[in-house]
């Protein structure tokens, strides 16, 4: 009879038997499931000498950076390799140097050290270790900057390390009653990170990641005291508005929070610059970076429009007091103008973020257009046009997702 | 993975301090003690559809329930568990509370109080009266706490386990807030076509609110229900429990009643496996026997596999040549659909070797680029631009809905006439006039412009049915196909799944010489979207070891699977992909299912599913 497959279940049983047998077997049949130590494939760009140690390190770092970053062993490997190379570079007789480290080397070393904290944070008694890694990472930046004072890569690395450090090491240790503002001076660290940040055209991924870290930080500060509520997922229900939790002037986050709107504006500007850089770049970066950058930018403009929108809607539709002509220094016309300006920008950026095969991105646009419609004068042609356009998009998205957006559509049609 | 048995549940029979009746009553909404209210509720329940069920708003003292919720939040640990039938955050069983130390009990005093009043004699009498279910046990307490967060669900089942008489669910979503319908998490009740065969779609739904209880009389074959997937980031917390048949020394105890009940009423799974019910499931897990003139060529091909090329020239040509390799014209035919990489002699040898070693093959980019691109464009545009039916009554030719929903639900095309089952008679009519699949004929009934995707998929099915493709299959597996079943399937987000089942061996073919006690299964996954990799949105096809074949099926829990924490029993876990062909020789010990596709999935999961009975050839 011809040899045949045993069947999935039987094959597994056989494999288990073999596995038990292997330990005793002198022939050393390979044990299923045991593979040689993890091997990493590194892609080097064309024209790079594969024997070039720096190029190898860059390739390794890039591979790690673009992976899921869940392999501590690889990261440790990178740190050890950096350490070895730095010692080798220092020991060499300068005249016959075959290994010279550059600013990018220091940046990689610093970023890898900083990245290690992600694996350490949250473990018992890890505070000191985390702090030590951040210190070492910043030290590496300083060392590099001594040699290469104009290096943009190193300043960008420093910005990233600072923005990683603030939440991971400092904020995680605070609560709403903390009062060590003088000691921590977190607002200064935030400002230093902003000063260090410059878009690096050669590395838009890193630039975006740093802006995302800044975005997260601002978000943490804005919602400080509500961490648990957010975990419960209040985002899914419009009626739940979070009240800002008051912080004392001595709270380390107080000054950062005082500057929230300036921070948001800074973030919008940086993201806008990044988006216009990306618009000119190759197609592959469009979906990986241009879309998410535009999406966030759109959301931030809508956020900026919230306050003037609220003022306009209150004064226009909810005002029983004839003497009330302005709120927070904004009169109705100004509020309307500002709100429309921000919301329109939001719509434009969300349009840029739209993906043909992702109905959620269409709905983001539709919802922003409804917001815009609400800001035009009641029953004006502009308003009607917005509602009509949004309804069209929502109907299409609803069809594409089998009713996922029915409640959004119902709300629009019911209020129309 | 197996269903946990009655004996493994921790039902508390321990004594605990008894509260005064007045005290118990004071902790409930006083309306429930009003005979008029009880009478009204009883009439409502007896007239309710699809079976006897009811609900009470604001059941217990609001402060007590808020305190219970607080205790649960702070004191109980939830673990997310996922099986073929559910995804839910489960707490530990509460039944052993009275067995705890007093110091431990003090952690959950309100929960303990709640349990006591829910099982109090005076409240049980109300439930017994309004449901007409007969006396209920107060000593056999059976409760658990679940929280359904985004993506959590529990598929259709009837709660028939052991001595359960009444099921109840007390809801505790966030107090003071309305739980809205679009959050999902509703309790949905299914009408039955006949006993044990529920309709595909529910006919009643309860959107749960804080301090609302829903309950129903457990009726074998009828009390089918599910928990709709929660669609938002919110906690739909609930306490689920059962009232059992009275136990010895309790009022209403009848010697032997429980044993008789358990013996008569089998669980959902056992029903599914009974041959009577197999008549009522569609599509049938049966394969149509291939004509012998075709099979005999496959036999020769496999026998020739090891023979030298000399035979090649001597073989007369039929639809397929009898040599153990592909002829040029066969390669040409196959290449119209398949990637050429897999058609070379070496390519086939490699596949053969892997299949021999693993009884499993995964072939990516199976269809050639031209076919793949065209199908992807069509399926994507169907997904984004066409309305997809979500109720069985709206499903149109050539699609049909797989039933019953306590086994599976999905849309399929099987090459037979359209059918829609509204009543038992519809099913009997279909059974009386059984058809064989004929895709060529089916295509002729379709409007080629309105059903372009379906027509192109049917082209693929016809290709897979061809003798030349089956020759290719025989070469890759060294197994001779004896029968086949090929279907196009679509699993809609928020709707479709299959539960874990074993293979259905062919009774007709089992005595054929060389018959392999297994089914060869193929699945060409044609899901045109990404985002499935993590398994979060379901849709994956899972093969697992059925670790305990001899479990006592009569007492299996229809709703609760044992979690396999080690993941050791998982043999294959394949998320949906584009153009990926999975071939498995599945023997009897292996369970397989396709996980419920979440609302959050970007599209339906599409595939062409294939099965063949096979034999070896000497």
UniProtKB/TrEMBL annotation, chain A:
- Fetch the InterPro entries from UniProt: Nro1/ETT1
Please tell me where this protein is predominantly located: nucleus
Record's GO cellular component terms: nucleus
Under the heading PANTHER family, the entry gives: ENHANCER OF TRANSLATION TERMINATION 1
Family, per entry: Belongs to the ETT1 family.
Q: Which GO terms describe its biological process?
A: positive regulation of SREBP signaling pathway; regulation of translation
- Region called Disordered, residue ranges: 1-36
Which UniProt key words apply to this protein? Nucleus, Transcription, Transcription regulation, Translation regulation
Record-given protein name: Enhancer of translation termination 1
Species source reads Lachancea mirantina
Presence of keyword Nucleus: yes
Q: Where in the cell is it found?
A: Nucleus
From TrEMBL, chain B:
One GO biological process term = positive regulation of macromolecule metabolic process
The principal location of this protein is: nucleus
Name the catalysed reactions: [ribosomal protein uS12]-(3S)-3-hydroxy-L-proline + 2-oxoglutarate + O2 = [ribosomal protein uS12]-(3S)-3,4-dihydroxy-L-proline + succinate + CO2; [ribosomal protein uS12]-L-proline + 2-oxoglutarate + O2 = [ribosomal protein uS12]-(3S)-3-hydroxy-L-proline + succinate + CO2
The record's annotation in InterPro entries points to: Oxoglu/Fe-dep_dioxygenase_dom, Oxoglutarate/Fe-dep_Oase_C, Pro_4_hyd_alph, TPA1/Ofd1_C, TPA1/OFD1_N, uS12_prolyl_hydroxylase
Q: Which UniProt keywords apply?
A: Dioxygenase, Iron, Metal-binding, Nucleus, Oxidoreductase, Vitamin C
Give the cofactors, semicolon-separated.
L-ascorbate
Q: Which residues form the Fe2OG dioxygenase domain?
A: 139-245
An example molecular function term from Gene Ontology annotations? iron ion binding
Which PROSITE patterns is this protein grouped with? Answer: FE2OG_OXY (PS51471)
Q: Name one GO cellular component term.
A: cytoplasm
- Region Disordered, annotated ranges: 1-21
| Subcellular location per the Swiss-Prot or TrEMBL entry | Nucleus
Source domain of life: Eukaryota
Q: Which family does it belong to?
A: Belongs to the TPA1 family.
What is this protein called in UniProt?
A: uS12 prolyl 3,4-dihydroxylase
């Amino acid at each position: 009879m011809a040899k045949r497959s045993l069947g999935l279940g039987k094959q597994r049983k056989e494999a288990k038997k073999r596995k038990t047998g292997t330990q005793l077997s002198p022939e050393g049949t390979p044990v299923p499931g045991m593979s040689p130590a993890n091997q990493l494939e590194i892609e080097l760009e064309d024209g790079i000498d594969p024997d070039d140690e720096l190029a190898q390190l860059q390739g390794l770092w890039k591979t790690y950076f673009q992976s899921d970053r869940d392999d501590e062993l690889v990261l440790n490997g990178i740190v050890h390799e950096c350490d070895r190379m730095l010692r080798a570079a220092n020991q060499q007789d300068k005249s016959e140097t075959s290994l010279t480290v550059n600013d990018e080397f220091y940046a990689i070393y610093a970023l890898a050290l900083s990245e290690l904290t992600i694996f350490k944070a949250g473990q018992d008694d890890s505070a000191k270790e985390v702090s030590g890694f951040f210190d070492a990472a910043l030290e590496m930046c300083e060392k590099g900057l001594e040699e290469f004072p104009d290096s943009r890569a190193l300043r960008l690395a420093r910005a990233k390390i600072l923005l990683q450090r603030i939440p991971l090491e400092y904020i995680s240790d605070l609560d709403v009653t903390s009062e060590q503002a003088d000691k921590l001076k977190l607002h200064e660290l935030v400002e230093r990170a902003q000063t260090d940040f410059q878009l690096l055209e050669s590395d838009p991924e890193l630039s975006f990641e740093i802006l995302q870290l800044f975005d997260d930080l601002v978000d943490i500060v804005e919602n400080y005291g509500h961490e648990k509520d957010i975990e419960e997922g209040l985002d899914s229900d419009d009626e739940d508005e979070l009240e800002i939790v008051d912080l004392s002037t001595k709270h380390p986050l107080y000054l950062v929070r005082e500057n929230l709107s300036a921070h948001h504006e800074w973030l919008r500007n940086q993201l806008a610059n990044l988006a216009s850089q990306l618009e000119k770049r190759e197609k592959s970066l469009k979906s990986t970076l241009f879309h998410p950058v535009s999406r966030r930018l759109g959301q931030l403009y809508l956020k900026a429009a919230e306050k003037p929108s609220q003022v306009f809607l209150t004064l226009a539709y909810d005002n029983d007091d004839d003497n009330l002509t302005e709120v927070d220094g904004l009169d109705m016309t100004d509020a309307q103008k500002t709100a429309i300006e921000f919301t329109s920008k939001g719509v434009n950026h969300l349009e840029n973020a739209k993906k043909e095969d992702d109905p959620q991105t269409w709905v983001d646009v539709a919802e922003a257009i409804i917001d815009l419609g609400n800001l035009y004068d009641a029953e004006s042609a502009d308003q009607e046009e917005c509602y009509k356009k949004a309804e069209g998009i929502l109907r299409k998205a609803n069809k594409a997702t089998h009713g996922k957006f029915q409640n959004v559509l119902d709300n629009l049609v019911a209020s129309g | 993975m197996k269903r946990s048995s009655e004996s493994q549940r921790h039902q508390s029979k321990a004594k605990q301090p008894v509260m005064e009746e007045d005290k118990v009553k004071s902790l409930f909404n006083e309306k429930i003690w009003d005979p008029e209210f009880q009478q009204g509720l009883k009439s409502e329940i007896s007239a309710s559809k699809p079976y006897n069920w009811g609900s009470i708003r604001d059941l217990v003292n609001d402060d007590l329930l808020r305190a219970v919720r607080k205790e649960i939040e702070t004191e109980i640990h939830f673990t997310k568990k996922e099986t073929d039938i559910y995804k839910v955050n489960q707490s530990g069983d509460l039944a052993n509370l009275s067995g705890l130390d007093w110091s431990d009990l003090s952690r959950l005093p309100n929960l303990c109080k709640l349990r006591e009043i829910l099982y109090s004699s005076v409240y049980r009498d109300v439930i017994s009266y309004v449901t007409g279910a007969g006396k209920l046990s107060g000593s056999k307490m059976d409760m658990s706490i679940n929280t359904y967060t985004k993506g959590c669900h529990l598929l259709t089942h009837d709660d028939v386990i052991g001595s359960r008489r009444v099921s109840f669910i007390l809801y505790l979503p966030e107090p003071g807030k309305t739980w809205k319908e679009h959050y999902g998490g509703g309790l949905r009740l299914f009408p039955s076509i006949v006993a044990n065969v529920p309709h595909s779609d529910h006919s009643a739904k309860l959107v749960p609110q804080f301090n609302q209880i829903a309950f129903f009389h457990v009726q074998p074959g009828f009390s089918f229900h599910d928990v709709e997937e929660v669609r938002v980031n919110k906690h739909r917390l609930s306490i689920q429990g059962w009232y059992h048949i009275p136990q010895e020394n309790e009022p209403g105890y009848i010697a032997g009643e429980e044993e008789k009940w358990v013996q008569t009423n089998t669980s959902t799974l056992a029903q599914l496996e009974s041959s009577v019910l197999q008549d009522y499931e569609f599509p049938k897990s049966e394969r149509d026997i291939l004509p012998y003139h075709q099979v005999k060529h496959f036999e020769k091909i496999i026998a020739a596999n090891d023979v030298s090329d000399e035979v090649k020239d001597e073989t007369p040509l039929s639809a397929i040549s009898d040599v153990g390799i592909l002829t040029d014209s066969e390669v040409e035919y196959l290449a119209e659909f398949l990637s050429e990489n897999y058609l070379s002699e070496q390519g086939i040898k490699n596949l053969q070797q892997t299949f021999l070693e693993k009884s499993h093959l995964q072939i990516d980019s199976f269809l050639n680029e031209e076919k793949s691109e065209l199908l992807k464009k069509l399926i994507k545009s169907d997904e984004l631009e066409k309305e997809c039916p979500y109720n069985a009554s709206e499903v149109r030719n050539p699609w049909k809905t797989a039933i019953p929903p306590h086994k599976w639900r999905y849309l399929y095309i099987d090459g037979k006439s359209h059918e829609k089952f509204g009543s038992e008679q519809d099913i009997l009519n279909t059974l009386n006039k059984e058809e064989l699949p004929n895709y060529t004929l089916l295509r002729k009934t379709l409007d080629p412009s309105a059903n372009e995707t379906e027509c192109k998929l049917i082209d693929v099915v016809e290709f897979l049915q061809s003798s030349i493709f089956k020759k290719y299959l025989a070469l890759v597996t060294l197994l001779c196909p004896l029968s086949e079943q090929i279907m196009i399937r679509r699993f809609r987000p928020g709707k479709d799944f299959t539960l874990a089942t074993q293979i259905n061996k062919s009774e007709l073919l089992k005595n054929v010489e060389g018959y392999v006690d297994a089914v060869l299964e193929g699945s060409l996954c044609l899901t045109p979207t990404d985002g499935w990799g993590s398994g979060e949105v379901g849709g994956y096809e899972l093969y697992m070891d059925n670790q305990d074949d001899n479990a006592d099926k009569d007492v299996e829990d229809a709703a609760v699977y044992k979690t396999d924490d080690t993941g050791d029993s998982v043999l294959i876990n394949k998320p949906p992909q584009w153009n990926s062909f999975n071939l498995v020789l599945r023997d009897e010990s292996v369970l397989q299912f396709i996980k419920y596709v979440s609302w959050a999935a970007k599209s339906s999961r599409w595939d062409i599913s294939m099965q063949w009975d096979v034999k070896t050839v000497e």
